[in-house]
Amino acid sequence: MFTLPPLPYDYAALEPFIDTETMRIHHTKHHAAYVQNLNDALKGRDELLDTDIFDLIGSLKKIPAELQTRVRNQGGGHLNHSLFWKLMAPKPAKAPSHSLMSLIKKNFRDFKTFQEEFSATAMGRFGSGWVWLVVHGRKLEVVDTVNQDSPLSLGLSPILALDVWEHAYYLRYQNRRAEYIDAWWNVVNWEEVENLYTQALKKKKTK
């Protein structure tokens, strides 16, 4: 049985960049609904209900065909949001650590170029979806996915995520997605990004 994880900070902790009410609704309504819908979709399938959400979404093609769409949508929503909350923090470091910064520069020339590519991808994501920094092999890439699709289903390891569904920003920013994206950079939890990168490399070594 899947459960709604608590936020690692208060709903107001990301002010003024992401407002309190958006965080409250996003977590207790939107994320909670994905969890409930996923449990409903897998009712009676204990072997799937007991599977780690990362393994479930990472092995989507192994799930019975009649369940795949619901698991991709509802399970993806649960997984994506679970990552998203941890990838933000109140008063985080302003920039990645030296080792992560070096990696970003190696893959994107410099940090500014990386931010510009990530933000441009976020602006270019038509409709609802997510933007990601992923590990592909040993390289870093920026990709986007539609709705609640996860890079894990594509064999990629996500280490940074930005939700560009309108419910993630509309209360404060209305249709001004660019302002939301610019504000979000102020709460990126670079320590968790580096942690996820390290985990991704360890998993690749064990395969």
Record keyword descriptors for this entry.
three-stranded antiparallel sheet; 3 strands; Helix Hairpins; mainly alpha; 207 residues; 9 helices; single chain; minor pseudopilin epsh fold
Write the layout of secondary structure elements.
Elements: H1 20-41, H2 46-49, H3 53-58, H4 65-86, H5 98-108, H6 111-124, E1 129-136, E2 139-146, E3 157-163, H7 170-173, H8 177-184, H9 190-206
Antiparallel strand pairs: 1-2, 1-3
Tell me the number of strands: 3
Fraction of residues in helices?
Answer: 40-55%
Strand proportion: 5-15%
Global mean pLDDT: 96
- CATH fold node name of the largest domain: minor pseudopilin epsh fold
Can you describe what's shown?
- The chain has nine helices and three strands, in the order H-H-H-H-H-H-E-E-E-H-H-H.
- It has 207 residues and is mainly α.
- It folds into two domains: 20-86, Orthogonal Bundle (Helix Hairpins); 98-206, 3-Layer(bab) Sandwich (minor pseudopilin epsh fold).
- It has a three-stranded antiparallel β-sheet with strand order 2-1-3, with helices on both faces.
- The longest helix is centred in the N-terminal third of the chain and has 22 residues, at 20-41.
- The protein is globular, with a radius of gyration of 17 Å.
Question: What is this structure, in a nutshell?
Answer:
This protein is mainly α and 207 residues long.
